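#struct-help
A.M.: can someone run this one for me? Single chain, 235 residues.
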Amino acid sequence: MPTPSPKTDCLICAAPLAYHTDPRPFTCSLWGREFQSEVSCEQGHFICDSCHSTSANELIQKMCAQSESAQPVELAVALMKSPTVKMHGPEHHYLVPAVLLTAYYNKKGQSDEKAKKLEVARKRAENVLGGFCGFYGACGAGVGTGIFISLITDSTPLSAETWGLANRMTSESLACIAELGGPRCCKRDTFLALKSASEFVREHFSVAIPISDPLLCDFSHLNRECLLADCPFHL
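D.P.: on it. Structure tokens below:
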């Protein structure tokens, strides 16, 4: 999918926008509410003005709450293509647990539980500051996988087995991210974290969260520090 233009293309599928001569009923693809509008995309998607102007984390929460996808990478990439989500930034610390929770609970058919956990994940992820990877030695995308496991297991600081699982998940993600090395790339680290989480959930919870194969990134033109051919996701 091509990267959409924030001024002219659909933020859901990157298709060109279509302009109609009269208002028509549309349901916001992110919020789920009905509106009258003269604008949609050629594929029929519609995003209301409120969602167009929302923050990155609010967009992530809304889109994940509405999504029926069980494909975390596809959902992550769709969100990354929004101009609200920058090339690098702490919004990725929420994006990772959000798309994993979405895929996990959609697979289990538990949309109500998904909505509640998305809210909690956002509050926790917003405590993971920008620059965590270099300044604290713990990439926020990796930490996001631990947030995900802690939420699906209802783990607390007093838990036993689930406490260990959440910490092991974070450690495995961070090891995978660290092995490839720096400098930072929020897209690369997100993909690595999602791959680690998919393998972990299959092994420990017997839930299959599929990951695109091959997983290829088309954001490198936006990244001055891109590893290019040394990145496993480089086109």
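A.M.: thanks! Confidence is low (pLDDT under 50) at residues 1-7.
D.P.: also worth noting: Residues 1-53 form one domain.
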